[in-house]
Here is the input.
Amino acid sequence: MGFKGVELDEIKGSDQMFERQPTYYDDLNKDGFVLRLWENKLGDKITVRFIGKGYPARRHWVPTSKGKKFPAMCTRFNPETQTFDPKGEYDCLACYFSGKKRKPGGDEKRVIGGASAANFVNVINRSLQKAGNDYPIQIVQLGKDLGDDINAAKEAWSVRPNDPESGYDMVFTFTSGKKANEIKIGLGAVVSKEGKERTLSEQELAYELIDLDAVYTSLLPKRRDEIISYFYNGFIEDMTEAGLIIDESLEMNLITEEDVDQIKKSLATISTKRGGSSSPVSVPQESVPDEESVPVVSKAPPAPKPQAKAPTPPAPPAQPGTSAEPPQKKTLVPPPPRRPL
Here is the structure.
């Protein structure tokens, strides 16, 4: 027999369609591979060693109609060149509405800010290491203030903190207890072993690092969901503007004809609920079909690449209803990136 339904109090509201789908970053966060700076409080200290290269990224904060904000990776930013590469007027919707200073409903507080630093880096969490964890690697996202403090320490010590031979541990000292981007690292918080630089051991050099490109790619917004969300939250003002965005998105292969059908239905439903016109969105009749779900970056997230001395390959994804061991347990490696459906 087919689907029998669910209890009335278990039916999710209409806002559910706008929720972001779980990403590879979410998998890592759930399984303890993300250093959660935002969970720390005043006076806390975390000792880490940066390992491997950093991954540049930029993100916007988008205010919703319910007084909250959600992060949106800037799709104009090119991590390889660390420059903004415009490809079209609507290639990054957050950039577009930020530049227009769009204020849904005239609310002065609901303006999308410019793209700010949100860089990724692997670290060795010394607390996990001291607890006997065979895989104490986590990723941390560095905002502008935190990144500036790290660069200041690098200049003072004349060496990169992630240098495998002459690098050093760093201590995150939480001085405000409010926001992650208010965390300050004083130069006195840079620690070393017996007053000297701390060379990474062979075992530490053999740690398999988390694939930051896969993390970043998984967080890039999906254009179909973006259009619906920005319309729902009032940034896309009418069906005409939505049609222009859909037009360019089709030309850039960010959405497919199948996506357009779903977008049109969703926008018509939202407009009707608001008491507005439910006229169909006007979009071109000819476009190049693409795969069923096309992300902003067309390539699929690559599987993590084990380093030459990696002790073990990545564990397979957890089955539904189960979870990986907590990070305090031994012999733990990050899950592989999700593949797009």
Remarks:
- The first strand starts at residue 45 and ends at 55.
- Confidence is low (pLDDT under 50) at residues 12-18, 187-195, 282-331.
- The longest helix spans residues 257-273.
